[in-house]
Automatic annotation (TrEMBL):
CDD domains: GluRS_core. ATP binds at K242. GO terms for molecular function: ATP binding; glutamate-tRNA ligase activity; tRNA binding; zinc ion binding. It comes from Roseovarius albus. Signal peptide: none annotated. This is Glutamate--tRNA ligase. GO terms for biological process: glutamyl-tRNA aminoacylation. It is found in: Cytoplasm.
């Protein structure tokens, strides 16, 4: 029977959940969910000076918005420090680690001399093989005994076989002088204790794998499968940073990108399944594998993101879209809409979501619903409502009083009205848009009428028919 897949996402709570971290979480989530495995969340909060509750909340909120649910409780790395220290002392007792009494000044002197002589500055502690009876009564760190010759081979599912010469690995510190564990020890112990079978993370951690593998080997623990994914670059090919636009995941929500579109785009950012661009979560879970991850850095492209988001908005059921639209407004710091406007939005979603790439665009198209009488006109619309156009609307309105309020009924009456006056419908559409929405870029005139209903439509047309309306 094959081993159950266990993955983890392990962010540091020193800031927001950036887009690279979000993709790492997504890759772990997809790999796990497609294999009926377990996806764990560990907050690596050992850096007490920089870790904040606000950052932890931002990470959890970002994952929640993206729909990346984790299994079990959130694990705090800091709270597991006694267990990390226990492993260091076990290795010490087994002779696989040692007490090093070298001071920071001695280490610096060694490095300065090595640099001056053109030798490796990798510190070789003189305490590695000293008998314990010769140990002074002074503070010490615990170092692991790194292999001195040969190579460490990292079998990576993305990078292939990576060889690191062991003479490039130092006797890494496990416990500091104050007894606190270092990050490398904490990660290795946590991954083992949590039963992590696959470590999927950014390739900036590739060298860390060799150091963490020393702990696995010394403890006789089975190694996880490693997959180090390339970083994300901006459109200019440079490492993604603030200058490329939004960095925190919550900013993308506030900018109006739907979570499904974001998941789809991030999945395609460095991973592919044939030529498929648009796909559902179910397809992504079924298709995602480590072999589809490329070795080169992916480039973030806002146009591709918007294109996919537009397709997801169009494909989403109206009720779900309305729910997410409300969440977007909250994230963007906008006021809650009254129930009657929400009801109208729900009934109008079928025409609002066409060709809307973001919720911001959808909100823009919904202005005819969200505005209240009297409708304010933008400059283009004001120009459409000259004295002639007002007269035409005044003439048209009585024809709408008893019409069957359906697309067919409205089209018959309005088209017939235009034909009787030898007008093209386009000549009538401009003033109607202005009267109903106060702007020229809107859904179709008939869709707006259907969504607003007979009473509101006629009231707006009456307003626009008046001089100065």
């Amino acid at each position: 029977m094959s081993q159950k897949v266990v993955t983890r996402f392990a962010p540091s709570p020193t800031g927001f959940l950036h887009i690279g971290g979000a993709r790492t979480a997504l890759f772990n989530w997809l790999y796990t969910r497609g294999r009926d495995g377990t996806f764990l969340l560990r907050i690596e909060d050992t850096d007490r000076a920089r870790s904040t509750p606000e950052a932890t909340k931002a990470i959890l909120d970002g994952l929640r918005w993206l729909g990346l649910d984790h299994d079990g409780e959130v694990i705090s790395q800091f709270e597991r420090a006694p267990r990390h220290a226990e492993v260091a002392h076990q290795l010490l007792a087994e002779g696989k680690a040692y007490k090093c009494f070298s001071t920071q000044e001695e280490i610096q002197e060694f490095r300065d001399a090595a640099r001056a002589e053109g030798r490796s500055t990798l510190y070789q502690s003189p305490w590695r093989d000293v008998d314990q009876s010769a140990h002074p009564d002074a503070s010490f760190v615990i170092r692991i005994k790194a292999p001195r010759d040969g190579v460490t081979l990292i079998k990576d599912e993305v990078q292939g076989e990576v060889k690191i010469r062991n003479d490039q690995l130092d006797d890494m510190v496990l416990l500091r002088g104050d007894g606190t564990p270092v990050y490398m020890l904490a990660v290795a112990v946590d991954d083992h204790d949590m039963g992590v079978t696959h470590v999927i993370r950014g390739d900036d951690h590739l060298n860390n794998a060799a150091r963490q593998m020393m702990i696995y080997t010394a403890m006789d623990w089975p190694l996880p499968v490693y997959a180090h994914i390339p970083l994300i670059h901006g459109p200019d090919g440079k490492k993604l940073s603030k200058r490329h636009g939004a960095l925190g995941v919550e900013e993308y929500q506030a900018m109006g990108y739907p979570a499904a579109g974001m998941r789809n785009y991030l999945a395609r950012l460095g991973w592919s399944h044939g030529d498929d661009e648009f796909f559902t979560d179910a397809q992504a879970k079924e298709w995602f594998d480590l072999g589809g991850i490329g070795k080169s850095p992916a480039r973030f492209d806002f146009k591709k993101l918007e294109n996919l988001c537009g397709q997801h908005i169009a494909a989403t059921e109206d009720a779900a879209l309305l729910h997410e639209f409300a969440s977007y407004r909250a994230a963007a710091g906008q006021e809650t809409l009254p129930d009657d406007k929400l009801t109208l939005l729900g009934s109008g979603m079928y025409c609002l979501k066409e060709r809307a790439k973001t919720f911001t665009e959808l909100f823009d198209k919904a202005s005819f619903i969200l505005n209240s009488r009297p409708i304010n006109l933008d400059d283009k619309s004001a120009a459409q409502l000259d004295i002639v156009s007002r007269g035409i609307l005044s003439e048209l309105t009585p024809h709408l009083q008893n019409v069957t309020w359906s697309r067919e009924g409205l089209e018959t009456v309005i088209m017939g009205f235009a034909e009787a006056r030898e007008m093209k419908f386009g000549k009538l559409a401009g003033p109607l848009r202005a009267a109903l929405a106060g702007r020229s870029a809107t859904p179709s005139v008939f869709d707006m009428m259907l969504v607003l209903g007979a009473d509101e439509t006629i009231a707006r047309l009456n307003d626009a028919s008046q001089p100065g309306g």
